[in-house]
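quick one before i forget lol
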Amino acid sequence: MPSIRLTAPAGALTEQGRHSVQRDLASVLLRWEGAPDTAFFRAQAWSYLVELPEGAQTTAEDDAPRFLVEVTVPQGALSERRKAGLVEEATRTVLTAAGLAPDDALRVWVLVHEQPDGTWGAGGSVIRYADLVALAGRGEAGNSDA
């Protein structure tokens, strides 16, 4: 199942952005992964916000906030087109949450980590990508109950 983690300096997000960015990023990830919009799949899309203390992030040039989005998905879950769409939309989502303009897009990095098949476990069992595809095909845990 997918996970997404945003690392940002404390105070770099707007109040509204801090409140909504985790669910927004999880929704972006599920949409680009092509998962069904069911409570089951939404509950499996874990989203983290890691806020760094003051002074913990800088560059060789300045102290303007930078943002790191790390996405973990099963290998094969994202085509090149889907990865590109995910990176683009995740970047826009973070810029919006921080109250920044599109010109600041280089301040957002998105790293996609593909977990090799057979190396992901949940509920005490190894979960394979084919298992997830089968669950999605059956609309597991209910149809769209959005």
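fyi The first strand starts at residue 3 and ends at 9.
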